[in-house]
Structures are given as C-alpha cells and as structure tokens.
C-alpha cells in the first residue's frame, strides 16, 4: 500500500471529512491525509498532486468536477468521487472529467475502505447503485413495440378527430351515422390505449395525420 502514502480529501462537511479519513486510514494504515473544504482550497493543495484523492461534488464555491479535471490534467492521481448525488447529471460529468471511481455516502467507513483497497487490483470503487446505473446507461434500448394498425376508415376518423371535429361532424363528413362514427372512435381509443381526444390527437400527430 506504499503507493498511497498520501491522500487528499475534498469535502465541506467536517463529519464527511472524518468519515472519509477514517476509511482511508482503514484501507491504507499510516496514510497521511490532507483535507480541503472548497474548490479553491483543494486547488491550492495539489502541488505536488496527491497519489489519491476523494472528492465531493457539491462544494460551496463550485463543483468538485473542477478539482477532478485539474487532477486529471496532472495525471498522477487516482481520483474517487465521494458524494450523496446518485443521478446521471452528477455521475457522468464526473467520470468524463477523469474520476476513476464513484462512491455514495451511505455506507460505513469499513465498506468504503474495502472498495478503496480494490484499487490496487484494478477494481474501480463503485457503489452498487452506481454500477447498476452505468450498466443501465450502456444497455441497448428495448425495441419499441409496433404501432397498432388502424383500418383505413379508422385512420380517417382519427385524422378528422385530431382536427377538432365532433363525432357528429365526423359522421356527416364520412356519410356515417353518429353511432357508427362513435364506434370507430371507441375502437381507435382501445387500439391506441388512449382515453381522451387530446391523447388521440397526439397519436395522430405522431402518425403524420394531423
């Protein structure tokens, strides 16, 4: 573990810094830990760059992504995000900036320490929910089901309905009884799984009928 004799913790909350420092001490006994509570303070402490950095994203003077980017440019630091944010809007910018792991603050320091120890074996520290999110992101999208087929008459009824015509007006234009036009409209709603004229109009627009 001599490669991680020094680490930087970037977090504006004292309790979170203590949690991260404890995890680092468990993972790498004897490690020297420096801390910073803001982007500016962190940038002032990365010359020379630390071998390891744990960086929160929500800092009082900006995003921790800026710190990650600067550490990435220097190319000598394994940078791990430690945060409460588990959404794509935080995850992917951090990874693009150069973060090599992403852990959530929802676990005891012992669990984080075990993940940090995996770095030496080439295992990126990832909270389970983050790993699932990454897998989901890169999974091919499920094919959309085929659009339900409408008969030519149903298509015409849908087109006229989408233009705002009433059932009686549709019936008059197509030479149908009001009852028959209403039956066509009911079948259209069932096939398209809609329940209002507005939803039917949207589906007509998707089909190029409106």
TrEMBL record:
One of its GO terms (molecular function) is DNA binding. It comes from the Bacteria. CDD domains: LuxR_C_like (cd06170), REC_NarL-like (cd17535). GO terms for biological process: phosphorelay signal transduction system; regulation of DNA-templated transcription. Keywords: DNA-binding, Phosphoprotein, Transcription, Transcription regulation. Residues 143-208 form the HTH luxR-type domain. The modification 4-aspartylphosphate is found at residue 56. Residues 6-120 form the Response regulatory domain. This is Response regulator transcription factor.
């Amino acid at each position: 573990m001599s490669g991680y004799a020094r680490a930087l913790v970037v977090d504006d909350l004292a309790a979170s810094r203590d949690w991260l420092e404890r995890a680092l001490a468990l993972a790498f006994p004897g490690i020297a830990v420096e801390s910073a509570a803001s982007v500016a303070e962190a940038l002032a402490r990365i010359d020379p760059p630390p071998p390891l950095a744990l960086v929160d994203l929500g800092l009082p003077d900006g995003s921790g992504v800026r710190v990650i980017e600067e550490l990435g440019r220097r190319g000598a630091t394994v940078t791990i995000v430690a945060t409460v944010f588990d959404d794509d809007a935080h995850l992917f910018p951090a990874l693009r900036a150069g973060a090599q792991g992403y852990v959530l603050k929802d676990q005891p320091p012992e669990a984080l320490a075990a993940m940090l120890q995996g770095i030496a074996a080439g295992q990126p520290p990832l909270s389970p929910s983050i790993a699932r999110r990454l897998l989901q992101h890169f999974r091919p999208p499920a094919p959309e089901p085929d659009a339900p087929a409408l008969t030519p008459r149903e298509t015409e009824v849908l087109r006229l309905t989408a233009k705002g015509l009433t059932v009686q007006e549709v019936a008059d234009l197509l030479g149908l009884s009001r009852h028959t036009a209403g039956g066509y409209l009911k079948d259209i709603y069932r096939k398209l799984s809609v329940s209002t004229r507005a939803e039917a109009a949207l589906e007509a627009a998707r089909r190029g009928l409106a």
